[in-house]
């Protein structure tokens, strides 16, 4: 998503040019290019797929909406398996229209994980519950802290359900470093993502994630937290940013690699 | 601030018309109308002043900036005393330019409270540390949760330093209700403020607070939390909202009273 302006073949080429050995993919561009075609493209290029984003949106109350969500998440698991990644990231979903019941919504996510975890395991895929910044709690994700994500994940085996640790969502929370250690000790850090925090936030607050080094997050400290917790998996850079999307994608990828080396290594 | 389009005399009249017995004031409009003049106006109208907003911005590193902040906060304490309110609300401040050190910034707030607490006590004023939503952590307030605010406040006597509980900033946090109980047991809920959470957030995210009943917050449950914690003080409604500010202030105040009665009583 950091360079969503690139087509799938352009992305693969740009990763090779920039020395990026692995990439996280999003479902919509994969579906647009074709699932089997994408899987073949990345496999032949020797590009590893770190994660597939995203399943989730599991908070519907009505049975039909809930069944649709579960069907879609099973499809997302299948897509992840086809792409050769072992991790499906979940954005859990916000409050249903008119609801004020955060606790109930979180419990419905647990119910869904109980159905999806075994399905994913059979296909070699782990689910990564991603806590999103509290500013998304009503409309996108009622799981707002790493504590909440782990409390959900720990109801299930670690090889079925873990968490996604994203600096953009967690940087402000003084409890998060200890929770990273908790997650690592349980083998539940299923992916680690970097973005910086910059202000002012744009309208809707979705597409204002900062390029690495531009903001308030001590990225090197965060790498230290996950490494001290035993995490040895890939480090993803996930920037939703209108300004970056308006530029040449190859240039943005090269810049991101440089920023990564300057601020996160 | 909910009806900042009203002049000070208009505000006093509108409160009388709407049956509002007390009002929280902000420093800028008070200074504009004149401190002594405002104090006289509200006193003669029989209108109680619940709180003065806001002191704070206590995170500067440089000695000159720190001295200026302390001077300004002492002035704010004096203003509160003159207005006849016992509570000064503090918005603690964000990260200094270029800093990524949230912990250090929070410690500088503690240092400032140690100087300001006794000064305020001598003048019959309590300080209320207000945790702001985590989306303000970098540029406005590094105190993001009620837990953090209480951890700061509890270093000092409760009659010097407590907290402001504002539903807008805390509604998403599943730990907050227990922390309200903790605050109440210690006599540290120095004010209670209502606003609703609505999306999409506007650019800059400052002026998008929802009218009561328009959003995701269970306001009645929150009144229950503070009442169960022993709070018997005023309930303030603080809405930063461009749409409300563009309307007739008297109409907005009457609407707010009606919403309060419908959603928070």
UniProtKB/TrEMBL annotation, chains A, B:
SUPFAM superfamilies found in the cross-reference section: Xylose isomerase-like
GO molecular function, one term: isomerase activity
Keyword list, A-Z: Isomerase
Gene3D superfamilies attached to this UniProt entry: Divalent-metal-dependent TIM barrel enzymes (3.20.20.150)
Keyword Electron transport: no
Transmembrane segments: none
Record domain Xylose isomerase-like TIM barrel: where: 12-255
Pfam families in alphabetical order: AP_endonuc_2
Isomerase in keyword set: yes
This protein's name: Sugar phosphate isomerase/epimerase
Higher taxonomy: Bacteria, Bacillati, Actinomycetota, Actinomycetes, Kitasatosporales
